[in-house]
Amino acid sequence: MNRYKITVQYDGSDFFGFQSQKNASSIQDNLEFAIGSIGTLEGRINYAGRTDAGVHATGQIFDFLTNNDRDTNQWLKGLNSQLPNDISVSSIQKVPEKFH
Known about the structure:
Elements: E1 2-10, H1 27-38, E2 42-47, E3 57-66, H2 72-82, E4 87-95
Antiparallel strand pairs: 1-3, 1-4, 2-3
């Protein structure tokens, strides 16, 4: 398994916060959809805090586990191609599997 640490920025105006919600668009749902569109997401993403509806972020950190072993630049380009324009991945690092 491979774990990647991601820094993301977003304009939260059109989202109901970071954390996934049943009947509302969230940043987490969009990120998990993007990861699943270009690779395999094992479980859910782990995030270092969350924001409320309409809140923006410039350096939100999260990580995810996958069985895909890709170059970080491939992940960066792939994720940004699958995300809406108001969410952008700014950096990706491969980290130890036990990273939290």
